[in-house]
Amino acid sequence: MELKKVIAVRTAKTVYRDGDKAIKVFGDEYKKSDILNEALNQSRVEETGIPMPKLIEVCKIDGKWAIVSDYIEGKTLQQLMDENPAKTEEYLDLFVDIQMSILSKTCPMLNKLKDKMQGKISQTDLDATTRYDLHTRLAGMHTHNKVCHGDFRPSNVIIGNDGVNYVIDWAHVTQGNGAADAARTYLLFCLKGDQKLADRYLDKFCKKTDTAKQYVQKWLPIVAASQSVKGNPEERDFLLRWADVVDYE
Fold first, then answer.
1. pLDDT tens-digit profile of 72-106?
2. Less crowded by CB within 10 Å, the N or C end of the chain?
3. Residue 25 contacts residue 64 (beta carbons within 8 Å)
């Protein structure tokens, strides 16, 4: 495999294209167990029938761990939204429909979202009182077993040249409550500084899924605190402001 054509660069990992393969190469700071777990989760989600790049192998390239998957020809939904702003509503509708199709699936072997968030809240720098409030709120939320992508954003949806809508980057997938996944997507839009698009997304999600907006909003402090553990300093400050809110206003 040749690592010449870079197609994406993210914190401590780089994705290359080599022919019909996409090769995600991890930095030394990644634990082997986390990389193997990501590959395992990807293969498990494949079995649900969700359109996604197929896992080919896990290997080492020049001493670094790598996950090799199918390369998907097409454009991301983010690219299409940027190129055709007049069609944003249409793309946003499609985005929510794809998320709903993911949430319609179950995958019993995935880690549980609530367990992951309990651990993340404990790792935050929040004071004990706020952590207690967040743990209590999380414990009181309904436990579901839906496939939750965990990082569902337009740049992780590829509209394939073959007419299929593929979802990529399953590193954070869990099974749990779909409202938590929607809260995460809402915060991702907010982190990009696009509050109006975040609000339009949430309105569409709640209408299409017949979910009370207040229910998704109750997840926001929990999800923000959980996400703050790995965020960069700017993101962490933003997220922790959400996490300090006991009741969403």
1. 999 999 999 999 999 999 999 999 999 999 999 99
2. C
3. yes
- Cβ count within 10 A of residue 85: 8
* Those residues with Cβ within 8 angstroms of residue 2's Cβ, 6 or more apart along the chain or in another chain: 16, 18
CA dist., res. 195 & res. 242, Å (int): 14
pLDDT (tens digit per residue) in 2-17: 788 999 888 889 999 9
Opening angle at CA 68, ends 64 and 74, nearest 5? 130
CA–CA separation, 68 and 141 (whole Å): 37
110: tokens are: 């995935």
pTM above 0.85, yes or no: yes
| CB contact at 8 A, 147 and 103 | yes
Could you tell me which of 191, 180, 185, 193 has the C-alpha nearest to residue 147?
Answer: 180
Tens of pLDDT, residues 117-129: 999 999 998 899 9
Among 138, 214, 230, which residue's Cα sits nearest to residue 176?
Answer: 138
Q: What is the pLDDT of residue 247?
A: 53
DSSP bridge pairs for 67: 24, 58
Residue 14 CB burial class (10 angstroms; 0-12, 13-18, ≥19): middle
Q: Please count the CA atoms within 13 angstroms of the CA of 125 that sit on its side-chain side.
A: 10
Calpha distance 132→214 (Å, rounded): 21
Q: Are 71 and 53 in contact (CB under 8 A)?
A: yes
